[in-house]
Write the structure tokens for this entry.
Amino acid sequence: MTTPTSDQPLIQALNVARHYQLGDSTIPAVNDISLEIRTGEFVALLGSSGSGKSTFLNLLAGLDRPTSGAIHVRGRNLAAIDPVELARYRRDTVGMVFQSFNLLPRMTLAENVELPLRLAEVDRAGRAGRVQSALEHVRLAARSRHRPAELSGGEQQRGAIARALVNRPSILFADEPTGNLDSVNGEQILLLLREIQADLNMTIIMVTHERPLAEQFASRIVTLGDGKLKSDTANAAASVHTSTATNEARP
Amino acid sequence: MKTRDLTELAFRNLREAILRNSLTTLGVAVGVASLVAMLSLGVGLQTLASQKLNKSGLFDAVFVSSKRGMRGDGDRPRRNDEKSAKSEPAKPLDEAARLEFEKLPNVTEAYAQIRFLTEVRFNGGSFSTNVLGMPDSARNTGSFDAITGKYFSSPTADEAILQSEFAKELNPQTAQLVGQEITLRYAQRHEPPPADPNKPKDIDDELDDMMSGGGGISIVSHDKKLRIVGIIDTDPSAGVGGFGGGRVFIPLKTVQEMHPAQGGDVGEFVRAGGSAKPTYMALTVRAKSPKNVLAIEEAIKKMGFNTFSLLDATRSLRLVFTVFDLFLGLFGSLALTVASLGIINTLVMAILERRREIGVLKALGATDRDVRSLFFAEAGAMGLVGGICGVVIGWLIGAALTWGTTLYLKRQDLPGVKISYVPWWLAAGAIAFAVIVSLVAGLYPAARAAKLNPVEALRYE
């Protein structure tokens, strides 16, 4: 199964840099990266530790602001908009999945998934249906009343994906989503992401340091090193693997 | 985020760290309790004093006397009233004046102060004493709360209440007097019936006419039988113009029907040139509330009478209690101030513990304002719950103080008093104050939480 892409870039990063000040020295975590990502792409950001891939992902996700350069998403420059607009961008346009799941431990799975709807001030009447739908999408509807501590790592990550999806974002950012999972669960999570991308025509940008997984699932592999863009290649093999793997993963 | 969601999340967060948040809330509750207990004591004492003073009938009363005075100075004005007196002769304080006073706005009643000397005859003995007429409203003043027996059965009953010291003169076992009969021998003011023009006058009639100019009064000895219905320990008075000065109390209307001769009768008779019209020595005009006293006093003065009230004393009393309440409130607030430090500490700790959660909220799209509001709501919730608990604890402390005081007073053979009182405004004010103090305490932690960088917060372990 191939994923349709549009000609207009959804995300356009232009000479993006993010420098951190540590005492007298300046550390260039991201250094002059320019990149265009189109709707429907599954982009894997590869690189070793300290390569700047997570920093770059945070910049694209609106969690941080670049020291210089511009990031245009649907015509808005994330580097220039005010904090409230940036928060709205994170709420309405973006879904985030983290390596350590980051489900709030005192809430049930359903309540965790409902959280973005609360922040988006969605009417209470419509919330339950959307939460249920998101949990069904990740095949966790039966565990909705469980707390995160009562779920396995894979289930927690699927719950986190449901939370990221519930507000129907157009871009899903995943920061090492398989980092805390074994290889089987890791693969299943990526299968799920690939399936969601196909179903919802969503753009996925994933940080990973596992090249085999990236090559198996991502349609495009961007490699970073020392805060710079090292390579940017399309991955034609992904669709074949994905198609086979998706069929295997479905119950 | 909507207020309902914010509140739900705040209470959920508070429930999660239940022990720490409960202890912090308890700190607020203790602070509020101390404030409420202190102020309820102040309010209670003020209410007690006000009630006692108001019941005494002094502070809602205007005492009225005629400008004619008691020294036989006739219409000669006093220095202050010289100008007005020149233009308008002093009016007599009679029934017509009393009725005029009753028509004034915010006047509940106007009644005569009738006192007279009498001889009480009981069991073959004779006892000289003073009689005082009691208006029917006196039954509500509290002066007769500790009565042995009961109050008058009606405003016109031929009944008497004795002051205990006088009652002891009649019978040392005073309680045995209730239900027995006494006879009052007193000087009655007697007005002769108008002469029949058809009746031929004898020599005595002719002489009377010559002496009095056609009118006249006579003072005759008269007996009146009364049944004793009650004995009171204390003089239900209270000074100038109150019910004081009497040792035998009779319903005012009964006294008026008895027509006792008053000290001013002869002077008034002479001044009026032989008129037999009765006048009063003094009248008490009762206002609906002490705040109406000033206006009533002014109106009566304009009508040409002397007035006197204890309004200034009430004002001083209020000032004293306001200062007293202020100090009590300040001391009570100290505990709440300490409690607010507890709130700051708890919320700052919560920020450290929930740093990652704040990062997640921001990553999911929470604005700085959402995060700030959440911490504010948690501070406010602690203040609200602490405030409500504090009011209840404060009320319980006040009730315990009242109970203890009453117990002690009863052991001293004194009636119990309510020394602590929590009015609705104190309860509502204390809760509001607790919420405000908590919100102020939450300012710094909330601002700190809102300013957290989401990337750094998410990195926090």
Q: What stands out?
A: The mean pLDDT of chain B is 80. Chain B touches chain A through 25 residues (CB under 8 Å). Residues 167 and 173 of chain B are 9 Å apart (CA to CA).
